[in-house]
Every structure is written in C-alpha cells, then in structure tokens.
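Sequence design from tokenized structure. All designs in this work follow the same two-part layout: the structure record, then the generated sequence. An example of the structure record is given first.
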C-alpha cells in the first residue's frame, strides 16, 4: 500500500472520528445539558436568595463592629451597600446562568472527545457513550455545594476576621467628608468611560483575535505542533477550531464584565491617594493599560497610543505572599524567625508546546487530591495513637465550625501540613514532595491562582523549619501545639515523648512556626471545594474509627444513620 493511500486512510479515519465525536457529544449535551444546567442555575440562585438576608445582616453588623474604619467611612460603606448588593445579585445570577449553560452543555461534548484518547477501540466506544453523562450531573451538584459552602461558611469567616483584627498598633482607615463627593464622581465617571471604551477595544480587536486564533490552530494542524502533536488529540483540537468564535465572544463579555469593577476602582484610588486628580488619571490610565495588554496578547504593536498618566505617588507592591493573622506581640517576638528564610521568586512558565509535555506537568487537581489524601492518612495515625477520638470527629460533623471543633477543623490539617513539609525536608527535595513521591517545584507547579496563594508561604516555611533544625523531641512538641494548641488538658493527656524547649528563643521559633502553619490552614480552609472534600475525609475517619472498635458492625450501622442526617 502506497504512502498516499495510507495518508488518505489516516485522514479519513481522523475525519470520521471527529464527526462521530461531534455527533455523540451534541447528543449527550442536548440530553444531559438541560438537567445539569437547571441544577446549577437554580441551586446557586436558591443559595444566593436564601442567604441574602443573612449576608446583609452579617455585613452591616461587621461594618458597625469593626474598628478598622472610622465613622465617616462606615457611613459611606453603609450607604453604598444597597448598590453593592444589587451588583452582587445581578452578576452572580448572570454568572450562574452562563456557567450553568456552558458547563451543562459543553462538558459532555468535551468528555466525548477526550474518550478518543483510550487505547482500544472498544474502550473508545464505551467511554464515548458513557463519559460526561452522570459525571456532569454530579459535577453540577458539587458546584452548588461548593458555592453554598463559600457563601455560608467562608464569607462569615472573612467577616469575623475583619471584626477581630482590631489592633491598637494599626491606625483605622479614615475617610474625610470632602473626599466623598470626589469618590462618587470618579466612580460614576469610571463607569461612564471604562465600559464603552473597554467594549469598543474588545470588539474592534475581536476580528484580529478570531483570525489569528484560527491561523495559529490551522498552522499547528498542518505542522503537527501544539495541540495537534498527537493523533489522539486531533479531535479535541478540531473542536477547539469550531468553538473558537465562542472563545472570542467570551473574551468580549469578560472585558465588559471587568470594566465595571475597574471603573469603580477609581473611587478607591481617590480614597487611597487623597486626590481627585489622581482618580481621574487612573480612569484614563486603565484604558491605556487594557489596550496595551490586548496588544501584547495579540502580538500587535508595543504599548498603546492612548495617554497613560501617573496616578500613584509611589509604586504599589503586588505581592502574592499569603496574608496571615498574627498578633502584634507575635510579630515582634518572632520577627527574627521569619526573617531567617528569604523570599523566593516564583517565575512564570510559558504553555507547553505539546500535549505530552502538558500531561507531564503537575496538575492542580493532583496537588489538591494528594493534600486531601494526606489528611486521611495522618488522621488514621492520630486515631491509632488515641490523639484524636471519635467524639472529636462527631463534634466537627455536627458543627462544621473550626472555632467550635478546632482539633479536627484546624489541628488535623495543620498537623498534616507540618509532616508534609517535614517529609519534603527529609527527602532532600528542592520543592514540595507530595504523598505519591511527585515533587512540585516552581518549574512544574500548576499556574493556578489558588496554588500561588500558598505555594510561596509553604516554601518559605519549609526553609524556616530546615534552618532551625529541630530535634525529634521538639518535633513531637510542635505536633502537640499544632493539634491541640497551648494550655489544654488534651495536650497534657497525649504522651508522645515530647520535651518542652527550655530555651526562650527556641520556644519562640517553634511557636512562630505553629502560628504560621495555623494561619495557612485557616486561609486554605476558605478555598472552594475544601470543605466538601474535608467533610468526606472526616466521614472516612469516622468509619475507620468505629470499624476498629469492639462493636464495629453496630457502630457502623449507627454511623450510617448519623452521616445521612449530617
């Protein structure tokens, strides 16, 4: 058989594969999409409307109680709340509709194309029919659950931290009444200027984005580069070519959506810089920055023809460091400990040139899954050592409040994170070593904003633990502190051969590490999906604890009923 015939057969196979996946994906999207979309849209809308009175009460109460703002600023926030809550409801409901339709209809489609990565034809056919059906519906339910956790648990935690972060050393944010009209005028001018100009720039450059994207995808198809590097991924790339106009439309909508907040941000510039002129300058500069950004992204001319006035008195530092809650006393006592480890610059990586390289990179899902797996493993160790009990797990399942059940809610996760760092140090890893022995470094880590928020603090904390070089007895003491805190009867009851450091500096160093780890844990506990996954870990530990008891079967029956009620 000649090469020409083979090439024609290969092309025919790819075309047939693509058409089959397109048909089955559309069929599954039309059958599964309405159900998944309705679950996500109605679920999120129900959460927002149901919790709206509570959100209003919590927010007003926090603004009144906090000492971070002076009285004029509190009054300004209270007057602005109706508009802010109206924007929140409108954007959240519209976003839920867009996400619901997109997730419900396109996830089964994409899963159909992903099925062609299977090895055998039988597996391809089975996965092509089954993938993206029930999983999409379950995914919609998971999204609603995570959104509810975010609204019902994470948001009140943020407000509680704002109320309790009252330190005598921190001056409250002040607002002079003379700046109120300036903030209002600049905010309105920002909306009037930013929304039309952002829309105009996005629409005018959308044809360039459309044709340049198609040109790049077709070039990769001909030269077998990028997403077309592997034959199994050609159907997915073909779907990308077809859906590229939707990507362009989504970019335009995103530009319009972001222009609302960027326009309002001019009021914040007036408040921060105490200058009406700088607030107006920021409105003009933001348009120029957006034009420059789109030029760079589309490989057009450098810079922007629009004026870009200076609107800051000095450069603003954009640090990705993790903000941790510490008392003033702790900051003064342990500042030397924190200064021992230098900050680490995390470089950005360009996208991989092929699917193979992309697959070899560590994924955010992999990191998140390994973290959750570590919680389960360490929890079983603590149950075997009688450090935590079934009553602790049951208390967390009933309250699901970190303050009311700190041993499980905060202590277990902090303990697991500490051993995660300790294992990375003992193995000599340059980065962070996951449980499956995969090392996460700044070269292969996922380029994800959520990971950025705790990767750098973990690396700094790892260096600090490595520098102080704790002995085994000190490690045991730190385990107790992380799990139970200070001065509790539970800490005294757990015998793990620890020794309380007698040296004041040594004790301060260990306490500083415990506070920082606890702060990181509290920050991570607010992330989306964390509470749902941690709830599953606690239920697994509950099953393990009762199954190891003397009356295992009876306890398991009792557990099943209690979990259903939870």
């Amino acid at each position: 058989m000649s090469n020409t015939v083979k090439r024609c057969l290969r092309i025919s196979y790819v075309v047939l594969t693509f058409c089959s996946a397109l048909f089955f994906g559309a069929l599954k999207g039309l059958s599964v999409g309405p159900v998944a979309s309705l679950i996500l849209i109605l679920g999120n809308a129900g959460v927002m409307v149901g919790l709206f009175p509570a959100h209003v009460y919590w927010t007003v109460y926090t603004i009144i109680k906090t000492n971070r703002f002076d009285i004029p600023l509190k009054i300004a926030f209270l007057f602005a709340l109706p508009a802010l809550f109206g924007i929140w409801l409108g954007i959240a409901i519209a976003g839920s509709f867009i996400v619901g339709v997109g997730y419900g209809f396109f996830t089964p489609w994409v899963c159909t194309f992903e099925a062609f990565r299977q090895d055998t034809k039988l597996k391809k056919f089975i996965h092509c029919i089954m993938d993206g059906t029930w999983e999409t519906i379950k995914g919609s339910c998971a999204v609603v659950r995570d959104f509810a956790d975010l609204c019902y648990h994470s948001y009140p935690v943020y407000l509680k931290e704002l109320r309790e972060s009252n330190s005598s050393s921190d001056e409250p944010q002040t607002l002079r009444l003379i700046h109120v009209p300036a903030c209002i005028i600049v905010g309105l001018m920002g909306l009037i200027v930013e929304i039309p100009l952002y829309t105009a720039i996005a629409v005018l450059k959308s044809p360039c984005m459309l044709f340049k994207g198609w040109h790049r995808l077709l070039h990769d198809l001909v030269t077998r580069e990028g997403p077309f590097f592997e034959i199994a991924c050609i159907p997915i790339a073909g779907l990308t070519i077809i859906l590229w106009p939707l990507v362009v439309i989504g970019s335009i909508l995103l530009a319009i959506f972001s222009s609302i907040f960027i326009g309002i941000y001019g009021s914040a510039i007036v408040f921060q810089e105490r200058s009406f002129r700088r607030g107006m300058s920021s409105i003009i500069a933001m348009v120029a920055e957006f034009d420059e950004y789109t030029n760079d992204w589309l490989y057009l001319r450098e810079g922007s023809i629009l004026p870009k006035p200076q609107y800051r008195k000095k450069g603003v530092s954009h640090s990705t460091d993790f903000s941790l809650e510490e008392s003033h006393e702790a900051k003064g006592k342990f500042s030397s400990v924190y200064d021992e480890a230098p900050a680490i610059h995390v470089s950005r990586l360009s996208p991989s040139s092929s699917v193979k390289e992309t697959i070899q990179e560590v994924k955010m899902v992999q990191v998140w899954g390994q973290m959750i797996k570590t919680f389960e493993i360490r929890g079983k160790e603590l149950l075997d050592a009688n450090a935590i009990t079934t009553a602790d797990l049951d208390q967390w399942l009933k309250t699901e409040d970190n303050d009311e059940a700190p041993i499980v809610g905060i202590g277990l996760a902090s303990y697991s994170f500490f051993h995660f760092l300790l294992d990375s140090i003992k193995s000599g890893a340059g980065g962070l070593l996951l449980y499956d022995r995969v090392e996460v470094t700044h070269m292969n880590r996922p380029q994800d904003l959520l990971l950025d928020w705790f990767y750098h603090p973990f690396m700094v904390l790892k260096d600090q633990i490595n520098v102080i070089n704790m002995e085994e007895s000190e490690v045991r003491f730190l385990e107790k502190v992380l799990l139970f805190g200070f001065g509790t009867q539970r800490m005294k009851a757990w015998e793990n051969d620890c020794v309380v450091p007698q040296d004041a500096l040594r004790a301060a160093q260990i306490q500083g590490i415990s506070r920082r780890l606890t702060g990181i844990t509290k920050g991570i506990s607010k992330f989306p999906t964390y509470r749902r996954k941690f709830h599953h870990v606690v239920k697994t530990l509950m099953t393990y604890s009762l199954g190891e008891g003397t009356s295992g079967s009876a306890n398991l029956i009792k557990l099943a009923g209690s979990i259903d009620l939870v």
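The longest strand covers residues 432-433. We note this feature because it recurs in several other targets discussed in the main text.
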